[in-house]
Amino acid sequence: MNNLTIRELEEKYPFVISYFEENKLDIENHRDKTFKEYLDTFSEEDIENWAINKEKLILDLEAFIEQMKEFLGIKEDTKVKSLTILPGHDKSGNKEGFEKLTINKSEIISIVGPTGSGKSRLLADIEWTAQKDTPTGRSIFINDELPDKKWRFSSNNKLVAQLSQNMNFVMDLTVREFLELHAESRLVEDVKGTTEKIILAANNLAGEKFNLDTPVTSLSGGQSRALMIADTAILSSSPIVLIDEIENAGIDRKKALELLVSEDKIVLMATHDPILALMAHKRIIIKNGGIDKIIETSDEEKRLLIELEKMDNVIQGMRNKLRTGEQLKKEEI
Ligand SMILES: Nc1ncnc2c1ncn2[C@@H]1O[C@H](COP(=O)(O)OP(=O)(O)OP(=O)(O)O)[C@@H](O)[C@H]1O
């Protein structure tokens, strides 16, 4: 509410007019201002003469809107459609090199930069929905609005799902039990169908197949990562997925990204891998703790990516041959 102009407020909640009337607030020539900006136009004298309490008027308007919404049965669409990053500063205190970055549903953004430059810090700012309260001074907006504080503290309805390099399972469950527990906790109707869908997707990503009766503790690194990615894509309610390095994880990285994006997620991944960097629609370049620039993947780079993938297949092929004890020949390349 605090970011909307009075005109936008009236459009969204027509009943606010009666609040302004009841409180004898003449908003006639102030529709382009937010409610707070309007209240700031009162002089000290007005405030004293009419006993105006600005903070209380703002809080009361918020409460009025909430009550009316409840009374009228208005359910707002709380779906996350976009994530916006507003600049802070780098490690030396210089302003970052962009004005505003908005990322929409089904977009993939890669984050590149030297070791220690601040890639993980950017992911952490997003997870914390930073409001100039982290070392970078960045702000994060959701659907162009200040994010609700609930995102920070809710454990069930998280804004962000994190996929990190290590997936350590502590419970001694089979894959089926693990997925069923998760599906039940998410109140999924068709637990069996969803469980099977996830295992199918996970096996599509993992190099070596596994089944529902495999204990999660005996999955290989790549298999457990594939399982977590499929689980996050299909079961998690989190609209934003943050990935810190998925290279060398023994999974099909391209398919993993396609799966996440097909489920309408916003994906941000920190990476040192050129293939992953170019699979993104845009890449953020981090230097000395700050976003230096944002580059859109060009058509030339997309064509190069096809070549890179061919080279990657050659390397994968050699890796597999070496693993099985074969000797490599000149013709491999
Ligand atoms: N703008 C900033 N101001 C102050 N400190 C920062 C800033 N950005 C990052 N840092 C700090 O710098 C350190 C290194 O950052 P981070 O771990 O994010 O690097 P990284 O790029 O992820 O490195 P790697 O590639 O090795 O994983 C962290 O302690 C982080 O909090």
UniProtKB/TrEMBL annotation:
Keyword check for ATP-binding: yes
ABC transporter domain residues: 78-314
Keywords tagged on the record: ATP-binding, Nucleotide-binding, Transport
UniProt cross-references to InterPro entries, sorted A to Z: AAA+_ATPase (IPR003593), ABC_transporter-like_ATP-bd (IPR003439), ABC_transporter-like_CS (IPR017871), P-loop_NTPase (IPR027417)
PROSITE patterns to which the protein is assigned, alphabetical: ABC_TRANSPORTER_1, ABC_TRANSPORTER_2
GO molecular function list: ATP binding; ATP hydrolysis activity
Keyword ATP-binding in annotation: yes
Pfam families (alphabetical): ABC_tran
Listed PANTHER family: OSMOPROTECTANT IMPORT ATP-BINDING PROTEIN OSMV
Family: Belongs to the ABC transporter superfamily.
Protein name: ATP-binding cassette domain-containing protein
Source organism of the structure: Tissierella pigra
